[in-house]
Design goal:
alpha+beta; 3 helices; Rossmann fold; single chain; four-stranded mixed sheet
Amino acid sequence: MLDRVAFQLVSLVPQVDQVDMVVSNPPYVPIHARLLLPSDVRDYEPACALYAGPDGLSVILELISAAAGVLRPDGWLIFEFGLGQADGVDRLLREDAQWSEVETARDLQGIPRVVAARRSGHGARARLHG
């Protein structure tokens, strides 16, 4: 099975041949929330790994668009997002006709934290559990 999986560490989504899945932990912290982060995160993580515009969704919007360009029909986009962003992420995916089967999973504290969306096409339904 591992001979069918190839991992790539990239800045967003490269221009590659089509793939079946894109998984990301993009920056999603709104810039105004900087001081709310624990100091061990805020003071030591690179800003580009944390902050994504005024609402924290600017990189996620780019990711959604870029992933649609490299995913095969029925391929999956899965990514983490921040506290309070579930409605915005859901809206971005549902308003874009390229995505279907949008599901959100909650973390161990019951907070919506991860989304999976299938690129429109034909195929079996997968479920995100959590």
